[in-house]
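Sharing in case it's useful to others searching the archive later.

Someone asked me privately for the predicted structure of Enamine deaminase RidA (YjgF/YER057c/UK114 family), so I'm posting the question and my answer publicly. Question first, with the sequence:
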Amino acid sequence: MTVYLPAVPGYSLLADTGVAATDVVHVTEYVASADLSLDAERAAFLGDHVVPISRVPVEAIYGSDASYAVAVTAHPGGGTLLTDGDDVLRVADGVVYLPSVHTVSGDFRDQYRWCLTRIAELLAVAGLDMTSLVRTVDYTATATRAEYPRCGRPRKELLPGPVHPGAAGILVDVPVARGAQVSLDAIAASGPLTVLNPGWARYDTLTYKPAVRAGDTIYLAGFGALDPVSQLALHDGDLVAQTEFIYASIETVLASGGATGSDVTALVEYLTPAAVAAYPSTRALREKHFPNAAVTSVVCSALLRPEFLLETVPTAVVS
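And my answer, the predicted structure tokens:
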């Protein structure tokens, strides 16, 4: 059984969660300082156990003044280790966990294409291709918001479908490396994949879908307060109303696959700076809609739609 742990402010606190380092299959490091080195802390916890690392610069760790937080996915035995150059992957129960990828060469579209191509190379090591992707999360800067539609071409060319992954796009103004305009996270799964879509036609022409089910796990896209029919952003300036709309949308997608909010095991919530003050008022909504979710909350620089205060990326496991 895969365990999703919420981000904690420091590797040293992972010992309190009871997770064994040898069971870890993926780590996400949310860093509030781009130059922060975590090599020593990571080695102290993981020892000789090597795992794929996703590094995500953020404005802040919500609810903490820590310089970083670390979220862990674990599976008994830690799965199978695969390598390709300096990159490592782990495969556990048919799920392929990858590191985040980026380059510093080329313009925005070139970098996005490189990231997708590199992911394809990593998946090939696991005997899979891009049709096995279940979720992508890209991190770009606010300054590139106008350029963001240019990622559409490489996605159309390199994500052939018919099953496209869930996707999220988050704006972070401090790059993962100097010159990197894009950083991309991805996860893949072997076996049959099923798209979950409650009938929202806007996804018919997009290179991502509301959710993808692989076995008992549902990987949902990032959800903001966007009307799926009109494609208009809703509830400008009202975080509670946006949150209620987002959570209801997530439950609508889950219901199309026979799941409920109680099946959600993990939520990653990206808050804009403008949302931080009001975020405590959304806690009751999370507990109502997703009572079993491990919640990670971080402050990003902005979101792709300027009106959005929150984007939520859920994972559910249907029992």
